[in-house]
Amino acid sequence: TELKNKIKVVYDNNILAFATPPVTEADRTLVPMRFLFEQMGADVDWDGATQTAIVKKQNEIITFSIDNTAATVNNIQKTMDVPARLINDKTLVPLRFLSEELGFDVQWDENTRTVTIK
After folding, report:
1. Which of 13, 21, 64, 65 could anchor a disulfide with 71, C-beta 3.0 to 4.6 Å?
2. What one-character DSSP code corresponds to residue 7?
3. What is the pLDDT of residues 61-73, one digit of tens each?
4. How does residue 1 score in pLDDT terms, banded at 50, 70 and 90?
5. Own/partner pairs for 7-10, CB < 8 Å, 24+ apart?
6. What is the spatial distance between Cα 58 and Cα 66, in angstroms, rounded to a whole number?
7. Separation of CA 18 from chain center
8. Higher pLDDT, 90 or 82
9. For the whole model, what pTM was predicted?
């Protein structure tokens, strides 16, 4: 039943195989940042001193910090439902907020515990 509870993330008709599995917090799915954004064709920079991520995709620039719900999208302050977290030295980010800010559509299927990003 361990597998049954796992969250699957489908992007571009492929199930993404995360080295660190997605987790949920307050009904939000958090996934490893770098792997997801690289699949989406975004560039990810990390400022270790401030624990801030900078994500760039075409004209979109999103910055956010660990354990902080504030995010900046193209210089506009936004609030995420849950903050990015550092888990086992990996940055996990709220999937829906960041995917939608990058222009993707996100669907959740409770029965199959699958997130689909289009």
Report:
1. 64
2. P
3. 999 999 999 999 9
4. very low
5. 7/113, 7/114, 7/115, 8/112, 8/113, 8/114, 8/115, 9/36, 9/95, 9/114, 9/115, 9/117, 10/114, 10/115, 10/116, 10/117
6. 24
7. 12
8. 82
9. 0.88
Which residue type is seen at 86? L
- Report which residue type is found at 55: V
Tokens of 3: 């597998």
Dump the DSSP string for 70-84. EEEETTEEEE-SS-B
pLDDT class of 4 with cuts at 50, 70, 90:
low
| CA of residue 65 relative to chain centroid, distance | 13
pLDDT of the residue at 89: 86
